[in-house]
Design brief:
Endonuclease, Chain A, nine-stranded mixed β-sheet, three-stranded antiparallel β-sheet, 12 strands
Length: about 270
């Protein structure tokens, strides 16, 4: 734990013990229970200055639901662990939607919960016009097949992945993933540095948050995404994130696997 959180500090800190290697990978900041920020960024220098990353701000009733998720995680890391759950009191929130609000749904990955994967694959399978996706790590065969099938039926499938990566193993995994998409005539873009953004657009449906498209984020780690359907808000994300990143990136048309790539393939297929 950083020393500045321990020495002469009023900040309350609880360590996540991560039993069975299940990591709390969610990134969530809540201020005065009125606004929340979530997305891909951890608290570190590289996320702020070196990598390409994204956080987004939400307000309204969803903040109370996010607060309940934080309170549950905080209680879990207390001295009582799971036994502290009976003492957890959830904050009530409005479920009706005002005219100027966008209905949002929280999607999670936790033990035995794979809402992010289920919702993403279902949306991709029903896509009619476009699928824009940007992420750091792609190792899901189910996702690759769904994206390839969408491209083959005429959907505009565009994927952005990083040229550089903080994991050499997953860098090779990304190349193996996009090879299948290129064969299906999808548009694949290699971002010139490490992009840590996690964003998916399917027609006018958007899913953004902390989850990668690998086995850890889709099946094991604790993750929080939010999803919504709104044409205007989705188009804003296209204009602010995807269009600039398409322009900055290099479109690739062929993947040439090295001997190392071929040797690592059996390992990567387990990720």
């Amino acid at each position: 734990m950083p020393h500045f959180l321990e020495e002469n500090s009023k900040v309350q800190v609880r360590n996540s013990l991560n039993p069975w290697l299940v990591t709390d990978h969610a990134k969530l900041i809540i201020i005065d229970q009125n606004e929340a920020y979530l997305g891909g960024m951890n608290i570190g220098r590289e996320y702020r200055y070196d990598w390409h990353d994204m956080m987004f701000r939400v307000t309204g009733p969803i903040v109370s639901e996010l607060q309940n998720n934080f309170n549950k995680a905080w209680r879990l890391q207390g001295g009582l662990g799971d036994w502290g759950y009976p003492f957890l009191k959830n904050k009530k929130y409005r479920t009706t939607v005002k005219p100027n609000e966008i209905p949002m749904r929280i999607l999670k990955t936790e033990a035995s919960i794979s809402q992010i994967e289920t919702a993403s694959i279902a949306a991709i399978m029903m896509a009619k016009k476009r699928i824009y996706i940007q992420n750091s790590y792609f190792t899901s065969d189910i996702l690759a097949d769904a994206l390839a099938d969408a491209s083959k039926r005429g959907v505009d499938v565009r994927l952005v992945f990083p040229e550089e990566n903080d994991s050499n193993l997953l860098k090779v995994g990304n190349l193996q993933f996009v090879e299948k998409l290129i064969a299906a005539k999808a548009k694949v873009y290699q971002y010139p540095k490490f992009t840590h953004v996690k964003a998916l657009i399917v027609d006018d449906w958007t899913c953004i948050g902390s989850a990668n498209f690998d086995a850890l984020s889709l099946r094991i780690n604790k993750e929080i995404n939010v999803a919504f359907t709104d044409k205007k808000a989705t188009q804003q994300l296209v204009g602010k994130l995807f269009k600039p990143d398409f322009n900055k990136s290099k479109r690739i048309y062929k993947v040439r696997p090295t001997l190392q790539d071929k040797l690592l393939k059996p390992i990567i297929e387990q990720l």
